[in-house]
Amino acid sequence: MTPASASQPTAGALARVVRAGAALRVPALFLLPAALVVALFFVTPAVVTLYLSMTDLSARTLSQPGFVGLANYEYVLTSRWSPMILANTVRYVGLTLLFNVGMGLLLAIAISFVPERIGNGVRLLWLLPRITSPVVYVVVWQAIMARSPFGLVSELTGTSQNWINAFPWHAVIFANGLIGASFGMLIFTAAIRSIPTDLFHASAVDGATTWQTVRRIVLPLLRWPIMFVTAYQTLSLLASFEYILLLTNGGPGFYTTEVWSLWAYKEAFQSYVGNVEFGLGAAMAAFLVVTGIVASLIYLRVFRFNELLVTPKIEVN
Amino acid sequence: MLRPKNWQLWLLLLLLLSLPILGGYAWLVVSSFNQRVHGLVPVGTWSLENWQFLWERIGRRPPIWTVMINTLLLAGGVATLVVSVSSMAAYAISRLHFPGRGVMLGLVLVLHAFPAVSLLIASYYVLVVLGLFDSLLGVILVMSAFLMPLGVWLLKGFFDGLSWEMEMAALVDGASRWTIFFKLALPLVAPGLFAVATFSFLVAWGEFILPYTFIVSGRTWTFSIYLQSLIGDTEMANYGRLGAVGLFYMLPAVAVFLLGQRYLLTMYSGGSKG
Hints:
Order of helices and strands of chain A: HHHHHHHHHHHHHHH
Number of domains of chain B: 1
Mean pLDDT of chain A: 82
Largest sheet of chain B: 2 strands, antiparallel
Low-confidence stretches of chain A: 1-7
Number of helices of chain B: 11
Oligomer: heterodimer
Number of domains of chain A: 1
Number of strands of chain A: 0
Structural class of chain A: mainly alpha
Distance between the termini of chain A: 37 Å
CATH topology of chain B: MetI-like fold
Distance between the termini of chain B: 21 Å
Shape of chain A: flat
Strand content of chain A: under 5%
């Protein structure tokens, strides 16, 4: 045996590694920008959140924050406001979700009963609040809910009051719901339109009423879309606070409509005493980050999105 | 569904449900052209006085046109960045063969479901370290990152629909994967690219929290900060001016929405297979 032939297998392995490396180079380059974005704006902030939550970083200790371990978490968990804000969060997410899904369903069913052109017009109208900037949207709400003689609601009911302050929870849920309902509406309309017409002809022949058709054919077939919209919106509502911030800023009064994410945001960025507590805010946000990661992992499993992956038919890159 | 005989009743229901939305936008239009509006009824004559902000600065705020350009840069920048970064990643996940594709797709979906707003506090530090705090570029980067998972997910769906035979033929003819991506695949998924671009543009155009948190100086103000500063400022509730600025802010978004709605709606019906 000559040395050359002894090294044959090694050279072959090397060549294979080189070839594999070359094959990976193309996908790696395609994925590089996205990977950078994820590393910088998802992974790093998640780690930083967890780190900050264990320091006493605030406007006062900005130059030399100290490590405080789990003290911030202890503070959050034992704060006398936590139970109330947690209850508010559950209330906000639960009721808004109910409104969103219920209204989305009602709209989708009604839209598929009217001629398609009219239905599409209604869909566009309901998308309008979604593309309106939150600030413009809230300006409109505040104006309509204002006292007489300006506010439309005060004029119509004859009771002059600031309706947002009088019914802060109704305002928050209704304002969020009119935007959130369009998501379900779109998904459900698409799902209803994809149901084979044979089913409806069959139920018509059997003499089913409209209600029976909806109850026995449409709703069972919409089970997955409904679960999808519910799961998706639960998670996004949990972290959303934009409209509450603009509409009531957690008020009126003390923490009336304050939700968890708004609490964290205010702790870190707004302060009336001039000392913003980043560390504490981060600890509050950490609860949301962890909930978010766990919930989205569960969501991924339940909806079996992995099965949507098609194996490429070309093996070379 | 089959159209019931009494479909007009369903139309009536739709109109009733839509009244709050119709009323709101009617108010926006009416109030911006009138000095005083009671409910939806103008009192006195129509006027353009509320539109003075177009040629005069309000207080110490930046001129409206600076604000307009900043908002355009923000929305345009986000749309461009989201489309380019996510189309590349989506192509790789959909069409290229490499170990870990499944994990990648899972990651995209988890990131899409994950509420990115909860990372706001830490993003502040990332921007400060990068020297991008109080700059439009910083807001553009963070926003694009938050929108990217949705872009990848949707475009993957569009790339999945392309024919393999065509791609194979191009490879045999000696084209590289890059050539195929730019010359063949991208033009074919153009509707998807328009959908993602329109969506990202609209979200960035209206965004409030990110500019509000990450921008301080007036020269980088965007529309939402400008309008919000007017709400806080109005002691005697100058709703006419708020309405006018709001309407002016909304018009470009409505135009983009009407141009892109055809693509946006395909995104909802075709993109999410859940």
